[in-house]
Amino acid sequence: MKNKLIKVSKKTINQINRGKLCVFELSDNFQIKRIFNIHGYKNEIRGNHAHKKTIQIFICIKGEIEIYLESVNLKKIVLLNEKSKPLIVYPYTWVTICFKKDGILSVLANMKYLKSDYINNKDQLKNFK
Predict the structure, then answer these.
(1) pTM of the predicted model, to two decimals?
(2) Structural domain range at position 85
(3) CB 3.0 to 4.6 Å from 50: which of 43, 64, 67, 119, for a disulfide?
(4) First CA to last CA distance, the chain
């Protein structure tokens, strides 16, 4: 599966005496089919799986969250917080989510939940590559 380039822009507008407005705009080639929030406590680990087809966009709503990413050409740790840009996670990328503080991670996905889309064993992920 060839990944399409997805762009996400983030803009914060300061409104004097009214707070801030934070706007995310996605490129037209990303259609949201599912949105969910993960509420995590400090040191909680979530994820530990990859997807075959689903593309996800991670947005940290609250707290500080380390995202460990691993694929054929990638081994990377990304730290997300409320000021971070969204993180795009493409298929066949193993994701481990570690909450460094109590927090909320919002996830936008281009596919509805489908159990068969999940790869729950890291060794199996190597077979798909």
Answers:
(1) 0.85
(2) 31-128
(3) 119
(4) 11
